[in-house]
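tokens incoming
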């Protein structure tokens, strides 16, 4: 007999695991507050499966280009798409020399095309694309245009070797890397940081992983780096270092817990959040660790630059030559050998770059397997600017996270596709949309889903979503769209910093004509139940940050049992004392809310003679109970509780 009971319990356990993998568990830290379905997203299906997609958005226009296999789509951020020609996997789309420059694998013969978009898209020129596009889409590549120059990293050989970051085309000289500078690199991102007052000193930052030259068994096999080169670098003289970067320096980018020597070494993605003053530019870097956790670290460009200007050069003992290696000079061909020799042989900095915003720990550590990060800035109703991190998981969901001083608050999770991993992601900040590419389709996710928090002022405030605020029109977006621009809409009730709903009542006292804030979802049911039967009540979970309790007859309360997106109260066998009123209450911050209410009444004896309308929900398996699918599981729960009781007595 014992064996049977155990197997029942095991079965039950399995069912629970399967049911709860897609919904977070209440009471855990670092989970999304709300789970939103993707009904406010706009979906554009592709005609064919795409193994690789790439997005490009010109800085000045509200259009978006998508490159896939045999296709380049020009997409109006709101809806339309226009198809153009090509015959391969498009890897690079850049604006270059006043036209659209597109490169692809072209059947393992990388090729680039200049497209002109007048009446229809036309190829006006084509070029050899080795070093700009890889041979196959699974190989690493990267591209960037800076003032009409094209920078790229792509392998020079079919097997993926000779991967380098170069200046490849444009007005300035083509410049290459010295091959000993990096070991089996994977380039993740490159970014040009503009300096309005000091363009000669502008640098291009390159974020990558490479093989660790430290082969000791405890060392991580891979290491994350940031390197930088000067925009004005034209390489060395004819005699030494011709067409080679004279300003290349690299440093280790550290993310983790330095006190415990616990590091996240595998760089996954980088988003550079540019600022008016270059010193305020921030780098958001997403890492994974050898133990499969993910972390986000934030660095400031000013700190990165300072390290390159002050650190010793690894392995170099001599006096630091003048000009200091790595300094941007207008005539790099005239640099002295002493400077160039340090760059050539000691391009690595001795010091490490630590996260500057949160020095002792990452901003965020998680067990979610995040693969991509994008950061938007939004002005909330309190007129402060907030940073919003949009993190993509490997299972097709997007987490929208609010960056607070030293933590991340996960506002919501949106499931876009359960079919495949996210391939590419780009922010259309002015339109407040996130464009997400999958193998089968593309989604445009609305970053201001304020109607989801429209049930009450409290819900709008608890959402902690800086894109939204409570006004007389309900929960509405703080950014107002017009045809040409987005403008900030002042006012509205919100409390991003403290998440206290008391701001709602305070505002209510000021104006008298507010509607009653009874939530629409509240339903009170009178239910007839027989003595001795098992019974359950169910309550919808809205916020995974709230605690839910069941209150019986206004006093005894019990925590709820979570089953997916619902909270249950289980009664193994109805007794006389089990009847009466039950309320499911949610509490979050300073807000307590009645979610649902039941009135359990003893079932009259003559069941059949009662009009069916009064027997509202006796049959819990009936159609009107949308939790019907749960019933079998709930019966299992009830049974197992009973069995456990028997088991305990044995
Ligand atoms: C693209 O993906 C499909 C399905 O995953 C696969 O069958 C096909 O071989 C892939 N194509 C290439 C060129 O790798
Ligand atoms: C498009 O522009 C290109 C280059 O400016 C020109 O050669 C071509 O004739 C134009 N095509 C059309 C259809 O206007
Ligand atoms: C990390 O994930 C990989 C791939 O899913 C798996 O093979 C490996 O065992 C995991 N490592 C740990 C420490 O969980
Ligand atoms: C995380 O996602 C990446 C990309 O899809 C995948 O390669 C990796 O195996 C995943 N890691 C774990 C632990 O599942
Ligand atoms: C994705 O999820 C939806 C609803 O949750 C389901 O109907 C659909 O079958 C799922 N698709 C796949 C491929 O699993
Ligand atoms: C939000 O609620 C208000 C009433 O408070 C209503 O006028 C408005 O239409 C609602 N908005 C949405 C998007 O449902
Ligand atoms: C519960 O049932 C009792 C008795 O029928 C009734 O007096 C009471 O108003 C009901 N309460 C609710 C909330 O339906």
């Amino acid at each position: 007999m014992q064996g049977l009971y155990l197997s029942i319990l095991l079965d039950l356990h399995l069912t629970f695991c399967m049911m709860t993998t897609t919904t977070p568990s209440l009471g855990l830290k670092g989970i999304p507050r709300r789970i939103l379905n993707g009904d406010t997203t706009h979906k554009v299906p592709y005609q064919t499966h795409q193994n690789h997609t790439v997005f490009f958005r010109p800085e000045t226009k509200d259009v978006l280009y998508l490159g896939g296999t045999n296709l380049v789509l020009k997409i109006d951020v709101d809806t339309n798409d226009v198809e153009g020609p090509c015959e391969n996997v498009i890897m690079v789309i850049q604006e270059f020399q006043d036209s659209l420059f597109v490169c692809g694998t072209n059947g393992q013969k990388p090729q680039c095309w200049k497209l002109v978009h007048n009446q229809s898209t036309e190829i006006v020129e084509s070029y050899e694309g080795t070093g700009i596009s890889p041979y196959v889409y699974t190989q690493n590549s990267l591209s960037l245009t800076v003032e009409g120059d094209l920078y790229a990293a792509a392998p020079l050989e079919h097997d993926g070797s000779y991967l380098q970051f170069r200046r490849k085309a444009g007005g300035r000289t083509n410049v290459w890397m010295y091959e000993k500078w990096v070991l089996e690199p994977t380039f993740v991102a490159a970014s040009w940081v503009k300096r309005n007052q000091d363009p000669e000193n502008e640098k291009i930052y390159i974020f990558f992983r490479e093989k660790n030259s430290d082969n000791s068994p405890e060392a991580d096999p891979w290491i994350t780096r940031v390197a930088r080169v000067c925009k004005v670098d034209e390489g060395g003289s004819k005699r030494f270092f011709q067409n080679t970067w004279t300003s290349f320096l690299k440093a280790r980018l550290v993310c983790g817990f330095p006190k415990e020597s616990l590091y996240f070494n595998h760089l996954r993605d980088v988003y550079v959040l540019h600022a008016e003053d270059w010193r305020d530019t921030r780098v958001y870097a997403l890492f994974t660790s050898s133990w499969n956790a993910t972390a986000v670290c934030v660095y400031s460009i000013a700190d990165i630059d300072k390290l390159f200007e002050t650190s010793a050069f690894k392995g170099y003992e001599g006096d630091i030559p003048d000009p200091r290696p790595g300094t941007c000079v207008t005539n790099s061909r005239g640099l002295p050998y002493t400077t160039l020799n340090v760059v050539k042989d000691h391009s690595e900095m001795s010091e490490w770059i630590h996260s500057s915003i949160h020095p002792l720990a990452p901003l965020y550590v998680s067990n979610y397997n995040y693969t991509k990060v994008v950061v938007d800035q939004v002005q909330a109703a309190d007129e402060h600017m907030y940073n919003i991190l949009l993190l993509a998981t490997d299972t097709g969901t997007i987490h929208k996270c609010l960056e607070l001083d030293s933590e991340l608050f996960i506002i919501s999770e949106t499931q876009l596709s359960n079919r495949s991993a996210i391939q590419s992601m780009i922010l259309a900040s002015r339109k407040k949309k996130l464009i997400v590419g999958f193998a089968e389709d593309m989604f445009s996710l609305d970053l201001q889903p304020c109607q989801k928090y429209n049930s009450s002022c409290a819900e709008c405030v608890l959402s902690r979503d800086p894109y939204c605020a409570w006004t007389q029109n309900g929960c509405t977006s703080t950014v107002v769209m017009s045809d040409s621009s987005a403008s900030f809409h002042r006012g509205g009730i919100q409390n991003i910093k403290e998440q206290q709903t008391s701001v709602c009542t305070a505002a209510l006292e000021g104006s008298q004509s507010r509607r009653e804030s009874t939530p629409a979802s509240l339903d009170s049911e009178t239910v007839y139940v027989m003595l001795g039967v098992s019974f359950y009540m169910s309550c919808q979970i809205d916020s995974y940050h709230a605690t839910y309790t069941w209150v019986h007859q206004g006093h005894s309360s019990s925590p709820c049992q979570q089953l997916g997106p619902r909270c249950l109260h289980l009664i193994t066998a109805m007794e006389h004392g089990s009847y009466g009123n039950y309320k499911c209450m949610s509490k979050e911050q300073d807000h307590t809310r009645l979610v649902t209410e039941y009135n359990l009444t003893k079932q009259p004896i003559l069941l059949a003679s009662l009009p069916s309308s009064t027997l509202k929900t006796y049959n819990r398996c009936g159609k009107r109970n949308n939790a019907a699918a749960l019933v079998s599981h709930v019966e299992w729960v009830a049974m197992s509780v009973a069995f456990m009781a028997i088991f305990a007595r044995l």
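note: Confidence is low (pLDDT under 50) at residues 1-21, 80-86, 511-521, 606-650.
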